[in-house]
Specification:
The protein has 196 residues and is mainly β. It has a single domain, classed as Porin, CATH 2.40.160.20. 8% of the residues lie in helices and 61% in strands. It has one helix and ten strands; from the N terminus they run αββββββββββ. An eight-stranded antiparallel barrel has the order 1-2-3-6-7-8-9-10. It has a two-stranded antiparallel sheet with strand order 4-5. A hairpin with a 5-residue loop joins strand 4 and strand 5. The longest helix is centred in the N-terminal third of the chain and has 16 residues.
């Protein structure tokens, strides 16, 4: 019983000893973060789409302030842009169907007896632009928040703009490569970031 508790305390003490959050600039310098990722749409998308979505995309974040908004801690600010393509299960679009089968009525008139179904799968392209505020907690961990906007293009040739908000974290395999998780709206993502 005491073994797991001692391990937990030892790990927490070790993590606290390695903390870099109170040391501004204590991280490898980089100019751009390139991140290919898998994407999920767990909430209904904006526009006419519906259901859950899945796909892939990428981000590029450009560091603009090495020592961020709070001078006494290890934080930085970047501008991020990207593209995510997602395929959603359904569509809320209801429009006129197309006749797919005709039958003869009395007098020889052709009558439509079957129409194509509307509301099938839908595809989205999201083009986000965000302000990324990074907090460098330890050599292996960093977290960030990303408010911004995204232009979206829906497969029925419509487009729009939505606000975005993401929270994320990185596990640093090395100074240059991280596993990056992002949760928020309109998408979630999991990818690998390269700090160049």
């Amino acid at each position: 019983m005491a073994g797991p508790a001692l391990c937990t305390l030892w790990t927490a003490a070790d993590a606290a000893a390695q903390s870099t959050i109170r040391t501004p600039g204590d991280r490898r310098p980089y100019t751009i973060e390139a991140e290919p990722h898998l994407a999920l749409g767990l909430f209904g998308p904006p526009g006419d789409g519906s259901g859950g979505g899945w796909g892939a995309g990428g981000r590029a974040s450009f560091e603009i302030v090495r020592n961020g908004f709070i001078e006494s801690i290890n934080n930085s600010v970047s501008i991020g842009v990207g593209a995510d393509f997602l395929h959603y299960d359904g569509s809320g679009y209801v429009g006129p169907g197309r006749c797919t089968r005709f039958a003869s009525a009395p007098g020889g008139a052709a009558v439509c007896v079957e129409v194509s179904q509307t509301g099938g799968p839908s595809n989205y392209l999201f083009l986000p632009a965000v302000l990324q505020w990074n907090f460098w907690l330890a050599p292996k961990w960093s977290v960030f928040g990303e408010p911004g906007i995204a232009i979206y293009v829906f497969d029925y040739d419509s487009a729009g703009v939505v606000p975005t908000l993401y929270l994320g974290g990185r596990f640093h395999f090395s100074d240059k490569v991280t596993l990056t998780l992002r949760v928020g709206y309109p998408t979630f993502s999991l990818g690998v970031s390269f700090l160049l």
